[in-house]
Amino acid sequence: MSTPAAVKRACDACHRRKVKCDGINPCRNCSTAQLSCTYHAIPQKKGPKGSRAKVISELRETQRHHSSLSSKTANRLNGVHSPPCSPNLAPTPGLLTPDIIKECVDFFFTNMYPNMPILHRGRLDQQAIYADHNPESYTLLTSLCAFMFIQPNMPMVGVTPSNDPFGLDSMPGANIMSGTLLLEETMRVRKSYDHLESPSLSSLVTSFFLFGCYYGLDLHNKAWFQLREATTLAHILGMHKEETYVQWDTIEASRRRRLYWLLFATER
DNA sequence: TTATTCGGAAATTAAAAACA
DNA sequence: GTTTTTAATTTCCGAATAAT
């Protein structure tokens, strides 16, 4: 008779593989599978959020007197159905490869970070692990990569995995094309979640990178719109109030402070 | 056969509501 | 204040699938 007893924390690999983790480092699964056993993922907050999470009350409300309008109401948060709904806002599979992420993140930290020290390398890598199923992390990465591709001194990176049959790697302007592609991907996937009503810092940074993209592409009106959005999100997040910073650890707090400062330096 | 993947059941956790 | 209810998030079982 063994005690099953769920471990309090599964490692990153076991979490992805959905297998039982023994919680030690390195864990048994990682050892046998020759994987490096890490515990980088940041656990999400559990439990209801907002003023009594409203799904069930909405459901009850709509069932009570199911009028023609109630079906419309039911479609609100059940985003997975209804014919005219969601014209595919899911991430494009295979577009944002680990190679591209690595290349762009490296480029950011060597060339852009001195001027905009608004990301933390370790924390960004953690976010990248779950980008597949977290649209906020995904759009942060696509906007970052788009921004990097649009930089004039960015070296050529193949968007297609390895051997490019169209010779894009050697074509001038290919990086701008890739950047524009990723920019469009960001805008599209961003529609799949509400980044304004309960914004995260990732949303804010995404807006800032979008500003950078549009500015680099000489689309100035769109650029200022994104910058304005980023500034507004900063206010919604209370970044102008010192007391909001105490809830963050040193790394996160200084990152937020620098981001806030950069926003206003950029707005001039 | 064994190894891997992944849908989803069960457990865990924390916020909101109800209660004293 | 304490307890109960509710829901978001987690772990990981076990069936399906892939690899050998």
Count of DSSP E strands? 0
**Overall mean pLDDT score?**
77
Low-confidence stretches: 66-86, 159-170
Rg is 21 Å
C-alpha termini separation: 68 Å
What sort of overall outline do the alpha carbons produce when their principal axes are compared? globular
Helix content: 40-55%
Which class of secondary structure composition applies to the elements? mainly alpha
**Helix-strand sequence:** HHHHHHHHHHH
Please outline the major beta sheet: none
Number of helices: 11
Structure notes:
This protein has helices at residues 12-17, 28-33, 55-64, 68-74, 98-112, 121-129, 135-150, 174-190, 201-216, 220-236, 250-267. It has 268 residues and is an all-alpha fold. The radius of gyration is 21 Å and the shape is globular. Helix 5 (98-112) packs across helix 7, helix 7 runs antiparallel to helix 8 and helix 7 packs parallel to helix 9 (201-216). It binds a DNA duplex (20 and 20 nucleotides) through residues 4, 6-10, 14-15, 17-21, 43-53, 55-56.
Tag the structure with descriptive keywords.
mainly alpha; DNA-binding
Short description:
This protein is mostly helical and about 270 residues long. Helix content is about 50%, strand content about 0%.
What is the secondary structure topology, with strand pairs?
Blueprint: H1 12-17, H2 28-33, H3 55-64, H4 68-74, H5 98-112, H6 121-129, H7 135-150, H8 174-190, H9 201-216, H10 220-236, H11 250-267
Helix pairs in contact: 3-4, 5-7, 7-8, 7-9, 9-10, 10-11
The structure holds a DNA duplex (20 and 20 nucleotides).
